[in-house]
Design goal:
It is found in: Cell membrane. There is one protein chain. The chain is mainly alpha-helical. The chain has one domain. The protein is 88% helix and 0% strand. The chain contains 15 helices and no strands. The radius of gyration is 21 Å and the shape is globular. It starts with a helix and ends with a helix. 52% of the residues are buried.
Length: 413
């Protein structure tokens, strides 16, 4: 592993991944600031729920393809890559049709349950499917070695979102939440188009075969539950608070989330782009485990400080409607730290053994069930609050920490 980590090509790829991830994160932070300062807490709550709800359609759109596609592509010779890409896009197209049908059928019931509008639900579905396709073709582009191009697309997409949001404010004064929602949907679709063009340039003419589709689905069936329940555990708290809390509570919760957990998501993306290829190529899983264990003290000490500071800074710039409470901020920082470390360790385990993904899927199912029971109990007893919700999520993340440490001992060998 050390030879891989220290190689110049990998260092360049890591830097490019860092730049792309940082640009994407900065763009979403800038958009959050513009939206929070332009809209009332109720409008910001609607926009925050639009982003959260979109993840339902994200998991329908990817269904594990974002993990299965690059892995299958890496195993094929250059002249067979067109078959893999064609098969991936065929399966993704079927999933998109399914997602569209679900959006049309479920829009009214979801809107009534969450005090939302059908427009919000449908726009969330459009954004979720667009970001799902973006995740799939982005991973394909990176798997073909075009990490630099991925970084450029991320920077351009972030720039379009920020500039578009500022123009909307200057032209409209106080845009509706739907204006910002449409903006991010369009930016995601443009990114998809850019990645598709890059993949087409790097591969033979696309076509699909039943054998390749079966291989893809065979791996995706293990990856899909992991994706589904990983997203569920990340967003179930926001659905609960939307149902049981007030708009003001939801807006404040979204502000905390923007200040800490969104940075954690970007940190995870960057760490995964470094750890996963290094783990796959490493001669020994024990070496991987030892290097991660040496890295943990720095993460445990550094990440909480980073997340506390970022949370405080972000809430300061969101405007007078949002304040930073240290107790709640510390809970969010603890949650984000555990989340980052757990995903990092799980990524290393999956890189060495597919069985790790199957185990993680079962663990995630259990975590989602526990979260539904605990958070549902808070709603039914009218005890819902930011503090109680985050406390539940921290406890669940601690259970995941115990799980990933056990997985490292078993699979990093």
């Amino acid at each position: 592993m050390s030879e891989v980590v220290q190689s110049a090509p990998l260092r360049r790829l890591s830097v490019l991944s860092l730049l792309g991830g940082a640009a994407s994160g900065a763009g979403m932070f800038a958009l959050t600031i513009v939206v929070a300062r332009s809209l009332s807490p109720s409008g910001f709550a609607d926009f925050g729920f639009f982003l959260a709800l979109s993840q339902v359609w994200f998991i329908l759109a990817v269904a594990g393809l974002e993990l299965a596609a690059p892995r299958l592509l890496a195993r094929q010779p250059a002249d067979q890559r067109g078959v893999v890409v064609g098969s991936v896009l065929t399966v993704a197209s079927v999933l998109a049709v399914v997602g569209l049908v679900v959006a049309v059928v479920a829009s009214e019931p979801i809107a009534q349950l969450t005090r939302s509008t059908q427009l919000l639900v449908l726009l969330a579905a459009a954004f979720g499917m667009a970001t799902g396709w973006r995740a799939v073709v982005e991973r394909l582009t990176a798997a073909l070695g075009r990490v630099g191009a991925v970084a450029v697309v991320k920077v351009v997409e972030a720039g379009l979102i920020v500039v578009g949001a500022l123009v909307a404010v200057l032209v409209l004064g106080t845009p509706a939440w739907s204006t910002f929602s449409i903006l991010v949907v369009v930016a995601a679709l443009l990114a998809v188009g850019a990645y598709v063009a890059l993949v087409r340039h790097q591969t033979a003419p696309w076509h699909t075969t039943s054998q390749t589709r079966r291989q893809l689905i065979s791996f995706a069936r293990y990856a899909a539950p992991t994706t589904v329940f990983a997203v569920a555990i990340m967003y179930i708290d926001k659905f609960t608070l939307r149902i049981g809390g007030t708009d003001l509570e939801y807006a404040q919760y979204s502000a905390y989330f923007s200040g800490t957990v969104l940075i954690a998501v970007q940190a995870v993306f960057v760490l995964q782009s470094i750890v996963l290829p290094a783990t796959v190529r490493a001669a020994s899983g024990v070496t991987v485990r030892r290097q991660i264990m040496r890295l943990l003290p720095a993460l445990v000490l550094g990440l909480p400080v980073l997340y506390l500071c970022s949370g405080w800074v972000v809430l300061q710039v969101l405007g007078p409607n949002y304040d930073y409470v240290l107790a709640q901020g510390a809970l969010f920082a603890g949650w984000a730290t555990l989340y980052t470390i757990n995903i990092l360790c799980m990524t290393a385990c999956v890189g060495r053994a597919s069985r790790a993904m199957r185990r993680e899927s079962m663990v995630l199912v259990a975590r989602v069930v526990l979260a539904v029971l605990a958070l549902g109990g808070l709603v039914l007893t009218d005890q819902i609050s930011i503090t109680t919700v985050v406390t539940v999520m921290v406890l669940l993340e601690l259970l995941e920490t115990v799980n990933v440490m056990t997985m490292m001992r078993r699979y990093l060998v």
